[in-house]
Amino acid sequence: MDGLAGPQPPTHRTMRAFSELLNLLMLEHVHEPWRIEAARFAQIDPASPVVEEICLLADGLEEALVSYREAVATETLLDTGRAAA
Questions:
Q1: Higher-confidence residue: 76 or 43?
Q2: Which pTM value belongs to this model?
Q3: Distance spanning both ends of the chain, measured CA to CA
C-alpha cells in the first residue's frame, strides 16, 4: 500500500506485487503441488460465502490493473509521439 500512497505513479515493484496478489487470488498456482498455494487451496470451502466475494474482488483488481496498464501504454505512446514531433 505504501507504493500507492504518494502522488507519483506506482513503481515496477508495486505493480509486480499487485500481479503476485492477483495470481494468488485467482488461484493461479494451486495445481503445482510444491507451492504453498496448493495446500492452502485444499483448505478452502468452495461453498463459503467469502469465496464469491474474493472472486469479485479479484476480478475488480484485474480490471483495475488492465486499465492502469492500458493508460500507461497510451500515455507512453503519446509521449513518444510528442518527442518525435
A1: 43
A2: 0.75
A3: 38
